[in-house]
Fold this protein.
Amino acid sequence: MPDPPAHPLAPGPSAAATPAATRPARRGQSDPARPAAPEPARPGEPGRTGGPVVWWRRRSLRFRLTATATAVLALALAVSAYVFVVVLGESLIRNIDDQVYQRGREIVALSDAGRLPDPVTSVNNTIVQVLGPDGRIVDATSDTDRLVPLLPARARESAARTGAPQFVNGRPYALPGPLRVRVLSADHGVTVIVARSFTEVESSLVTTGHVLLAGMPLLLALLAAASWLVIGRTLRPIALLRRGAAAVGGTARSRRLPVPEARDEVHALATTLNDMLGRLEEAEARQRALVSDAAHELRSPLASIRLQLEVALSHPEGQDWTETAEGVLEDTLRLSRLAEDLLALARLDEGRLSRREPVDLGVLVRRTAERYDLGLDLDLGSGPGSDAAPGSPPVVLGDELDLRRVLTNLVDNALRHAASAVRLGVRTGGAAGAGVAELTVTDDGPGIPPEDRDRVFDRFTRLDDARSRDDGGAGLGLAIVRTTVEAHGGTVHLEDASPGLRAVVRLPLAR
């Protein structure tokens, strides 16, 4: 099929046009043949970055609460207005029907008694037509047609049989507006048609609708303004909390957020946040103290190493390098132990264990006693209150290496201060409590005063004279013990052994 002829005004493939169409556009110029790139979306515009949902989420809480409350109120007012108009209309219609029926019964009674006046008296603007057996109007009120009945014969028969009122257009009968009509039967084949204009009711309903349409926006505006003010005052404490939180800096001390007077949810939130700030401040203080103490502990061995090396380098000809190396090695081991203790505390502070597996405390204590040649007391499930069978092993869930370190630290501490003997003990039930394994390390040394027995578990804590044979440890051994035991869900404390001191560790048995 041949190609259609070109339009006379269409440009042809001229030599000047063809290269321009195929030649790439210069830098900075747009190519008319290439579609323009879409404009990047601007944040916050509906339809560009997620539509109205994203736009709504980016509005302030005050705006969203006010808009939601206003929308709910608008819907409630609209439904209430609709129900009110419908109920009012039905009530007015029912009132008209009752009046029409009452007047119709009166006319029927007068017709049956033969005392029907001519014309019929109109009561409350009620229209009456009395029809004879032949369907002609024999009597009526003065304000209605005396020739044409308001209802044709078939409609009259149906209305008289059902007794239900109905609407009839009154304009063909020169009557204003719609009519509410009811048909009643009298004696001797007489039919009574009673009607009343519905114009008054219609006018009342229209007026009521206009009043509601005019008043609802004003009421909604007042409610929206009241909601905006009330919600703003309700959210003011939150704004104060936000400004207070913004004023709390990283180096702030003893800063607290403002607490509102009202005992509401915002008050509870402010109290909780202040408690959190207090805990963070305490944690920061502990961290600073730990850093300061760690720096102090590191400075001593580093200074000793530096001094030994400087002396050796200053007098190399008379220096015993073996002795110098041994001194440096001793200080290096001290640094290594301190670093390991600090790493262990850092890991335990996170509240996590390397492993969680069944550990038999009886086996662990027995091996430790054999290693240090110590006395051992075992009491497994023999006391009252024990939920384990007598002789069953005291198995707990935890990290065996960490628990071994707890036992080793307690034994080393007891050996440094014991006068002659150290004893280990393990028992379940009885005083230990149901479901609990109790591990004890007892020495016969000088003991610790009761007021210092909890303080010795703090980090880098040394008692000057309570333990006279202390070899100068870093003061982290008992801190590691308490942190490890608490990570395993247990407790540790010191008590008087008369003479000496007893360390008591309680751990929950494995279920």
